[in-house]
Amino acid sequence: MMVVVAAHRATRSVLLAVAVLALLAPGGAQTIKQRPPPKKKITGHPAGSQAVPGEKLAQDIEDLRRDVNALKEMQALHTMCLRGTKTRDNTCLLLFAAPRPYHEASEECFARGGQLALPADARAAEELRAYASPRLPAATDGAPQWLWLGASDLRERGSFADATGAPLGYAPWAAPGAPRGGGGAVAASCVRAPLQGERPAWDVAACKAELPFVCQFSIPA
């Protein structure tokens, strides 16, 4: 009995030794495959990298579109200057003889890339009158012809300001002090200038009144 047990143990030892040798032999062990770590999703371009060709092309197209629009605006501005007149302070004036309410006149100028003319000093006021007066027929009753200017008290009744809300730095009112308003106690008043007379004498009228107007365009330096 003891002999059988000893033989069995010897056999197990031999088999174990063979198994160990098999594992240590080249190619005898299986390679354990490890799952690669998940790739991180990259948003945008890492620092120092360049945009892919498709994105660069899209950016080039957008830049070209902006350049074309800028050229169109410049061409439109030159067209306005050719139709009107250029002043000494690098602006263009364009007369619209058909009478319009103040709001429509202002919107017309804005749609064309300008604003209602508003002289900043006596010289600019004289340039405006010298340009517009001969191009508008005088009133049949001998009354002066008026133009809308780019100023009103739409923001605050009785306080006249330009289209940006800035107070008027130059305002040659016909009477001393700012007028109380031509639109009544409630309605807003808009500023107008006469084209006849020895000096500028601004006044106001109800903004719904219809008058000719001049658009003013700034020329880029």
UniProtKB/TrEMBL annotation:
Signal peptide boundaries: 1-29
Domain C-type lectin: 88-216
InterPro entries in alphabetical order: C-type_lectin-like, C-type_lectin-like/link_sf, CLec_Tetranectin-domain, CTDL_fold
Region of interest: Disordered: 30-53
GO CC annotations on file: extracellular space
SUPFAM superfamilies reported for this sequence: C-type lectin-like
Keywords carried by this UniProt record: Lectin, Signal
UniProt-listed SMART domains: CLECT (SM00034)
One GO term of the biological process aspect: ossification
Domain of life: Eukaryota
Keyword hit for Signal: yes
A GO MF term: carbohydrate binding
Coiled coil: none
PROSITE patterns assigned to the protein according to its UniProt record, in alphabetical order: C_TYPE_LECTIN_2
Designated name of the protein: Tetranectin-like protein
Organism (species): Petromyzon marinus (Sea lamprey)
